[in-house]
Amino acid sequence: MQKTFEALASTPRRKILAYLSEAELNAGEIAARFDMSKPAVSQHLSILENAGLIASEKRGQFVYYRMIPENLVNTLNSYVQEVCPVSRPLKRESAELSGKSDRQSKGDRPEPPSAAGDAV
Predict the structure, then answer these.
(1) Where are the beta strands (DSSP E) in 27-94?
(2) Widest CA span of the chain, in angstroms?
(3) To the nearest 10°, the Cα dihedral for 95, 97, 99, 104?
(4) pTM of the model
């Protein structure tokens, strides 16, 4: 998660993600949209790729980039669940349910849900 937020901390990298949100672009097409050197754009692309936010594919002499929206959504969702006070009890209940399903598979009877757990 840390790599994702470090990658998103940069305005050029957020712009690159916006450009890749609807289309695949090669490195040259991305660089043409910025007033910076191609090596600088390449560094930004590398950071985004290392964070798992974009993927690259070499086709002939060009490298094409595309966004991986699932990774961004999952990272942001995990972050929200960590900091959101509403999500904490739900995550705790989920962990408990996971433990209950382990007991069920061993033949134990599940515990009935508590009244406090029903009032979410």
Answers:
(1) 54-59, 62-67
(2) 65
(3) -170
(4) 0.66
